[in-house]
Amino acid sequence: MKTNDYLYSALIDKKLVPVIKIADADLSESLADALITGGLSVAEVTFRTNCAAEVISRMKSSRPGMFVGAGTVLTVAQVDEAADAGADFIVSPGFDPAVVTRAQERGLPAVPGCVTPSEITAALSLGVTTVKFFPAEAFGGAKTIKALSAPFSDISFIPTGGIDTHNIREYTVLPCVLAVGGSFMATEKLITSRAWDEIAARTRAAVAAANGHMNV
User: Fold this and answer.
1) In CATH, which of 3.40.50.410, 2.60.40.2150, 3.90.180.10, 3.20.20.70 is domain 4-210?
2) What is this structure's pTM?
3) Which residues form the catalytic set?
4) pLDDT tens by residue, 157-173
């Protein structure tokens, strides 16, 4: 079974999770290569298009080293679809106990969206130790996460929403932040236009910024 420790070990060194919306599964392999070229072998493929499960399957089968999760998972049926496609983890924008429980039943780490103490407490009661903090900037950003980490010292956060290379370091310096998610590395427009070099360059810059190796 893939556990929360499995999720932690897979993301702690990367610090970044590209959040992907892709409408053409035939672009899966090229997108994976662009991310890998930029220094990341991880992706969260959102269930906001009909081909999300196929994209996950193709990335996993063609690029075995990729760590690929399913994002925007809202229903139990989507959990099953993602698991059947070979997803490594499940991400939801909010906290739904049924989704978390089904992910656990399928042997997948669940990362539910939690922005309040009550939501985090509910997630903890189901054994969740990593939560998505979304939309991060709208809910107070790094300052709020730092404040929440005081009473919830066993929780790791993956903030997403309003984060890019200009403010990413505010988050990644926090010990409680496992990784930062964002679509800015591989936007839907860049993917559709097959701008693989640009995606690789943005990914490379994001990795550097997340690790404090450049001024942006």
Assistant:
1) 3.20.20.70
2) 0.95
3) 44, 132
4) 999 999 999 999 999 99
